[in-house]
Structure prediction request, 331 residues.
Amino acid sequence: MKLVVTGGAGFIGSHFIRYILNNYPDYRVLNIDKLTYAGNIENIKDVENHPNYRFLKADICERGIEEAITDYDVVINFAAESHVDRSIQEPEAFLKTDVMGTFNLLEISRKKGIQRYIQISTDEVFGSADEGQMFYEESPLNPSSPYSASKAAADLLALSYYRTYKTPVIIIRSTNNYGPNQYPEKFIPLFITNAIEDKILPLYGDGKNVRDWLFVLDNCRGIDVILHRGKEGEIYNIAGGNEKENIFIAKKILEYLGKPDTLIKFVKDRPGHDRRYSISCEKIKRLGWQPIVSLEEGLKQTVGWYKNNEDWWKKIKNGEFLEYYRRYYEL
Ligand code: NAD
Ligand code: TYD
Prediction:
């Protein structure tokens, strides 16, 4: 099978490419990534010289990438602007990449007769779940942030391509991922790296917002199952089954690092902050998938990775991230 993976220098995309090359020795992968602030070629350095891997630095919005996509079977679109807080501050890039970039890839896939187009989406498109409420694949979309609204728009566009042109689209919506190589602006890597440096952990609001944590490799295994056994025109949820309040995760990180809870600082809440995400993943379970990494095991492994890879995140935190962080906190 020949796969085009977009956004493969980012967090999840890089794990997915490594997973595919390790598990399917005869598959070929073309990674198309613009290398935005979140893209990091270091994430995928170990496969750089793999005979079945090729990298193209390009924007998914460019029409010109069509040429490179000749003779591929599958497109899997991970490329996105992915951070909610940035989408609140500067939404335009989200509309460009998440909506127009998806449009461009769908157009190319339609023209090239791609056999499978997988849109990597998120549970955030459903918006906030009330206590006891759970969203299913067919639940209505009710996004809260420019990020989730741009992802929801992309999902609807992709489904329209299935209905109108029979482009073989599949949508995958996962819960919050965590693991090695996640850009340290996101909750778990920000809190781990801040704690290592004895800096404060800025907890939004009352710290009781709930996210359902999914270890990144469990997500990759789920995408693999859907790639091979999913049905076109369908949507599949992937959930970690680990719904936890943010304060619980913050305290666990401090416990694993042997740091005091006094590092936690409650700060101003995020505007439009979704209280809780909760999705059912019974549909993918019927295809034979279930998560295998417990939250404790995954979190310990993740803390260990950031402890052992300070060079990776210090380079980021002392560069682009510092500028973003200062702007965000108006320092
Ligand atoms: P990330 O921000 O770590 O990586 C995104 C990658 O896309 C980067 O390598 C970046 O350079 C690339 N990119 C951005 N704009 C591009 C463009 N215009 N053209 C080409 N490449 C571009 O994101 P992630 O956390 O790995 O998320 C990957 C996908 O999974 C996204 O679509 C996101 O919406 C979705 N998702 C993420 C999570 C999560 O918890 N991280 C959960 C559910 C869904
Ligand atoms: P985040 O990693 O940005 O993911 P999401 O897309 O789910 O918002 O944030 C996860 C949760 O952590 C979310 O409820 C917001 C919260 N959070 C903080 O409390 N402090 C922070 O500095 C960050 C980045 C997030």
User: Anything to note?
Assistant: The first strand starts at residue 2 and ends at 6. The chain has two domains: 2-177+213-238, 180-211+242-271+294-320. The chain has a mean pLDDT of 97. The chain has eleven helices and 13 strands.
